[in-house]
Amino acid sequence: MSYKEELKAKLYKDLELKCDLGSEGISFKNPDIFKNLDLGGEYLEQVHVLFDYNTDSHKAYDLPVAFYTPLGLDVQFRANKKSKYSIDYINGEFILFNNGEELFPLEFAKRPNYYSKKTSDGTDMRTVAIYNGHGVVFVAYSNECALRDKGKDCLFCNINATKDTYGENQCISWKYPRQIGETVAQAYREGSRHVTISGGFIPERREVDYYLDVAESIKEYTGLENFNGTACIGAPTDLSVIEKYKEAGFSTLAINIEVWNEHFFRAYCPGKEELCGGRDHWIKALEYAVKVFGRGKVRSNLVGGLEPKSDTLAGIEYLASKGVIALAPGWVPNPGSALEGHNSPNPEWHLDLAKKNAAILRKNGYTYEELYNAYAAPVTLVHDIYRIEDELLPIFSEIKEEVLV
């Protein structure tokens, strides 16, 4: 076995740990330990847009966004006081433990400079666009969904609950096109190269007009005609409006179907079922989007764990064959959602799904760059599998030829 093969085997062990940490979260005895971490200075603090993935809320103190395994996989920090994994601050280092057994010191994600800047109207840029790592910024133009007023929220979603919990603390509010354009431009000047625009459910006509204004603002402030942006939208009743997003300058489109099985779709996504034409219309919208944007430039999320694995894989297989990049990150029973307190499948289930998800995409010829350009946070298990198999992680470039067997 070559050194690189050994390294890949070790990285897959790290991937198992990352998957376990994503399911279990991390506990800590006292939030005061984070006073020893320069959150909001050198290190990236959590800013909640759209969703909260912490089992335990933390309005009174900041938490880090992510840390790294020793071989360089990034792991999202999710607070859960019941987790078997814990961290403590010992002798000047944050240490990760598993049931009291020391694993390794933690290196946390660094904060981008634009987090300390303001837009021309005085808005903190960190509340306009969060940094999702690997040069990707994410804008949630609205942290509320109109489906709640209709009693049709997706059962797994906590977008409205997140605003209720953190809104006052983190200035969660409607984002204006100029704010977005200025913030994205600043992030791009610092090295970012992809942006996703998303938000809650709003009336279709208003959504189209807003996205067009945002695209124009980003182009104005970045000076880029092709700003490598993803518009994340609901399936429009009039499919022809999809062409407007392409004309506006978005290079990729996301229409998240969430659940593949038609019966589960109806149960979990009542608003999408009743107000957006139902599951079959969502599929038609995705297929139409591929005709407009091209193969590999349309993305759809499924929530891994809400339905039998065979159904999710059937959806990934079908969509991939039609030109859609479909991923199924593991379901986290979000606090404030209708399914809060329920259990997601075990980590082994999710890791197996991710491996099969990646295999389907690779079989259909999708590249890492296509996954990167279509996704809002390129830190999923599937992204990691691509980075391992294609030797894209920094650790591979650190290998000297003379040490290869």
Automatic annotation (TrEMBL):
Gene3D superfamilies membership: Aldolase class I
Keywords: Iron, Iron-sulfur, Metal-binding, S-adenosyl-L-methionine
CDD domains per record: Radical_SAM
Record-linked PROSITE patterns: RADICAL_SAM
Superkingdom assignment: Bacteria
Listed InterPro entries: Aldolase_TIM, rSAM, rSAM_sf
Single GO molecular function: iron-sulfur cluster binding
Metal-binding as UniProt keyword: yes
Record domain Radical SAM core: where: 131-369
Pfam families recorded: Radical_SAM
Matches recorded under SUPFAM superfamilies: Radical SAM enzymes
Keyword Iron: yes
Protein name: Radical SAM domain-containing protein
Native organism: Clostridium cylindrosporum DSM 605
